[in-house]
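User: Predict the complex with zinc ion.
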Amino acid sequence: MRFCIICGKPTDELFNNMCKTCYINNTELAEVPDRVIITLCPECFSYMFRGRWIRPEDPNDLYHVVHEATLRNLSTKIRYKAKVIKSMDLEFKRPYKITPYKRGKFSAVLTVEGVAHPKVGYFKKVYGFNIEVQWRLCPTCFKVKAQVEEAIVQVRASGRKLDEGELLRIRNLVENLLYKVYEEEGRSSLVKVEMDRHSGGLDFYFASKRIARYIASNIQKEFLASVKESYSVIGGEMTKERKKITISVRLPPFKVGSIVLYKGNPILIKDIRDGRIYAMDLGTYKLMKLGFKEAREIKECEYKRERAMVLSILDNEVQVMKLSNYEVMEIPLRRRPLWIKEGEGIDIITVDGKHYIIKGILGSE
Ligand SMILES: [Zn+2]
Ligand SMILES: [Zn+2]
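Assistant: Here is the predicted structure with zinc ion placed in the model:
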């Protein structure tokens, strides 16, 4: 029989000359610093860890952000004494108040569970310390706040102006994409949007090149646009030379309602969406779906569009009268769709001396 050197209890089991209770009371599992300073971005709630900005697990919950930032920063400052750490539990002591842009200080306790001696097994120790919260804008939020633009996405159409419908769709697409970015990253980097009066296009200014490229590539996919990137060097209040990029996104020269040639045949563009062109062959009235590769075979063509009325229908021929000069003409058809009826208003499309009939709904000239 031996005795514990602390409490004098007689026992057979001694650890460092102490009974189990005294051993636990006098053994540390870790050495925890008195205070931890954490740095957060007041706009997006990213936090600093080892000199880098980290996006938190849940950027919408400030309590969790501070919790995560504290644990991570603390974990590198703790000196571990246990052989094995099983868990670390961090709890803030009330009252604590975390307000963006306001320095804060409150106390917390860290409960460490671990093994210091294999025969003693797991036990817990509680360590108190202070958390100091300080705020600093992360580089991206700083640029947005300071209106520093890193990238411009210029959306134009080649050889024509963007129409109202296209402008609206582009704005909606960008808005949806930025909303997604915001959901994922807790910040959006759009600085401003400007309408370019001269070209009728849109300029999106971003504080992040990455987001700008993401937006540009999505517009490209949706509208089968082409994308070109160029650099310009912008002066340095910083020591490093900074580059600004301009991403030129060009929508094709044709749009919904245009008549173009595909493999030499005139087609009517019915829709452009999800990176596909939905069109109709004017000779056969067949609907077609063209992808990015096929779209490169589309050629612009000159054509005339005139309002007319169907007078009579023969087997392979339709007799129509132009509304502008009451000229009557016969147009041969390879296939007659059901909507071509006597008395129906239609449009005559003339390409390269050949006439085609389409539904007369797409605007009159
Ligand atoms: Zn004892
Ligand atoms: Zn930020």
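Residues 4, 6-7, 9, 18-19, 21-22 surround zinc ion (ligand 1) (CB under 6 Å).
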